[in-house]
Amino acid sequence: MFRLIGAVLLVSLTPAAASAQVAPAEAASQQVTIESYYRIKWGSLDEFKRLYERNHAPLLRELQKSGNIVAMKMDQPFTHMAGGVRWDLRVTIIYRDAASAMDLDKPGQKLWEEATARLYPDKKKFDEEEARRFGLLEDHWDVVIG
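The structure corresponding to this sequence follows.
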């Protein structure tokens, strides 16, 4: 996931920085907001959210404690959406800077791996639950806001 976000960030930050005439070092230090959208199989939203809160959110909170993540929030649409435009859950994460949002931030990657090992000593169970969580998805996409 970090590599995909990194590629999107590199593509999206370059034109924005050029058009705004922001110095590369300044652009790299600006906060980056990423919205992650999840379309979940019908009837599986509660289970997905439970697994997300148990296995993924604590890791994100570890990155927040370290300062790599500035803020996070989760939203659900108030009304049901139809078909291909439907999303069931949106997670918005504001990262400290582009390096924190991408795989280029090696300390962040190391923190993620250490937190995973510390919080989830039963790696087999963690991997199974994460596979189940991803199995509940119909679609997932990330949007770099800026």
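Residues 2-144 form a domain with the Alpha-Beta Plaits fold (CATH 3.30.70.100).
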